[in-house]
Design brief:
heterodimer; A: 76% helix; B: mainly alpha; 3 helices
């Protein structure tokens, strides 16, 4: 496909990050083991420069543009997600400094893979062509499979990577099959072309089947029921900073393409796909929250909790009838979700027992006496995850549930409120351990300023969005698809 | 000694506890913020009292929920407690 040279200017941030990832891989072969922290710092620097490269055209007030014959969109919606993803990856690297530094495995490819996954996510959120979205998704997923098994001599890590790879490959096949059916039914791989074809032509069973398969493929990526089973196992087995990354970064990208494909491409056929998403949302909220009740391992609990949150976020996609409200509520909720989830995982990383993060609820015993600030911040994140004011989680849930109510999904909103109440029970198991149980044995703290700063930034963001959400709401409204 | 209620009775009580747990927290916040909002409207100083009484409601609600959690501390979820949680992996 021919394209103008000016198109290349729109993907300069992605090209820069790809080059940075390649340079990091080369650096890893020459930098001595003792100085591998430099690679992490270079990774953070490359992400910051990428953010600046993204901000330059945005700050000059350029309107939304598309490139490469309409395969790539440089719009506010993509920019919002790219900035959020870059921030999440920076936090992940800050979480990883000690974790990776103390591991017996070389860190060069770890940070390189994180950057390649980020490039994949950036192309995903800008994709307006089914194949370009799919290729970007695979770039992200392949990096993720390797990252999940980064502790390659640990059985749990290998098990997590194997499960993730097998189920991921399976879901990619389903997604690709769905995309091919959509192409067969509409004759176009461009989202705008698919929408035009749906409006112009009669309803095709092939198209409906294609949409269902695409939805199933994407349900896997966001860990939505019944395609969620990988999430708790992978979160538990993967290195904790990578679990934090999986819980946030790839989900942000997956929700972005979910919204773009279903709103921009399949929008005119919404009566066919909204019941499927509603059923999955209901099942996901119940399975995620009830599953989390049974867990003693905090990473698994957060894994199931993130499944529940995937269900809440699906409510925003159901609000197709009031799509501006629905879309902006998704953007706000996902920002809140990134802040509170990264913060909670950060505290798990800070608590260290047996060379690993404090994975059991019992590891939190007596934390309030040993470190009241850490316990207080953890309470803030847990309240936010449960959707209690004045936190970002409350604002996000309030807007999402309101959007779903406005779109006529009142029963789902009520179920979401009920499941939020259920979630309070398992989140408070951690609060109880921190405040009401005496600590047994020594609670070992690693003094990690990088992790502490990242957690405090997340806490400040969680509280700031909860107390004064108007700037974020205004920003989200200016970054919609339309 | 076996539990006269049996496993299903224990699970039923557990899920009843789960569903009834924690409602006092949002209720306290709503009550505090609601009273504050009414007072603010009356005095024309919104959002001072809404914020103050809302935070007081939050503090009172947290205290009540922690008490509730302490009362339930003997209760264990019906799943295994080996760290795997749902027993789906051996």
């Amino acid at each position: 496909m021919p394209f103008a040279a000016s198109d290349m200017a729109l993907i300069v941030p992605e090209l820069f990050l790809t080059a940075a990832g390649l340079v990091l891989l080369i650096m890893a072969t020459v930098v001595p083991r003792a100085q591998e922290k430099q690679i992490a710092l270079w990774s953070i620097a490359s992400l910051v420069v990428t953010g600046v490269l993204l901000a330059i055209p945005a700050s000059s007030g350029q309107a939304a543009r598309s490139a490469f014959g309409g395969m790539f969109a440089a719009d506010g919606f993509a920019l919002f997600f790219k900035v959020l993803i870059l921030a999440a990856v920076v936090v992940t690297i800050l979480f990883s400094l000690r974790f990776v530094g103390e591991s017996p495995y070389p860190s060069g490819e770890y940070y390189g893979l994180l950057l390649f996954a980020t490039v994949g996510m950036m192309f995903m959120v800008s994709g307006t062509h089914l194949i370009s979205i799919y290729v970007a998704l695979e770039l992200m997923a392949l990096s993720q499979y390797v990252l999940a098994g980064y502790f390659k001599r640990e059985t749990k890590s290998i098990e997590a990577a194997a499960k993730y790879f097998i189920l991921g490959a399976f879901s990619s096949g389903i997604l690709l099959y769905g995309l091919s059916l959509v192409y067969g039914a509409t004759g176009s791989l461009f989202l705008a072309g698919v929408a035009k074809s749906i409006i112009a032509g009669p309803k095709s069973p092939l198209l409906v089947l294609g949409i269902i398969l695409v939805a199933c493929g994407l349900f896997f990526k966001i860990a939505s029921a019944p395609f969620h089973v990988w999430a708790p196992d992978v979160y538990e087995g993967a290195p904790t900073p990578i679990s934090a990354f999986f819980a946030v970064g790839p989900k942000l990208a997956a929700y972005a393409i979910f919204a773009r494909i279903f709103f921009s491409g399949f929008g005119p056929n919404s009566s066919d796909w909204t019941p499927i998403i509603a059923a999955s949302a209901a099942l996901t909220m119940v399975v995620g929250n009830v599953g989390a009740l049974m867990q003693q391992n905090v990473k698994r609990m957060l894994g199931y909790s993130s499944v529940g949150h995937a269900g809440y976020a699906l409510l925003g996609l159901l609000a197709y009838g009031s799509k501006d409200f629905g879309l902006s509520s998704i953007l706000i909720y996902l920002t809140a979700y990134a802040l509170m989830n990264l913060g909670a995982f950060g505290l798990v990383i800070l608590l260290e027992t047996k060379g690993y993060a404090g994975e059991s609820v019992d590891d939190f015993n007596g934390l309030a006496r040993k470190n009241p600030l850490a316990a207080g911040v953890m309470v803030l994140f847990l309240l936010s995850l449960a959707g209690i004011p004045p936190t970002a989680g409350f604002v996000g849930k309030y807007l999402l549930f309101s959007a779903a109510m406005q779109a006529g999904w009142a029963w789902l909103s009520l179920l979401a409120v009920l499941m939020s109440a259920v979630s309070l029970f398992y989140y408070f198991r951690i609060v109880r351990a921190m405040y009401l149980v005496e600590g047994t044995g020594e609670l070992r703290w690693k003094e990690e300023p990088a992790v502490a700063v990242a957690i405090l930034v997340c806490a400040a963001g969680t509280l700031a969005v909860g107390v004064y959400p108007q700037p974020l709401i205004a920003l989200a409204k200016s970054c919609l698809l339309y | 000694m076996t539990d006269p209620k049996g496993p299903s009775g224990r699970e039923g009580r557990f899920f009843a506890d789960v569903l009834s747990f924690g409602w006092v927290l949002p209720a306290s916040i709503a009550a505090g913020a609601g009273l504050g909002w009414l007072a603010d409207r009356f005095l024309g100083i919104f959002p001072v009292l809404t914020a103050v009484l809302g935070l007081l409601g939050l503090a009172a609600g947290l205290r009540a929920v922690l008490k509730e959690a302490a009362a339930l501390s003997g209760d264990a979820p019906p799943g295994p407690r080996d760290g795997r949680g749902d027993g789906d992996r051996k």
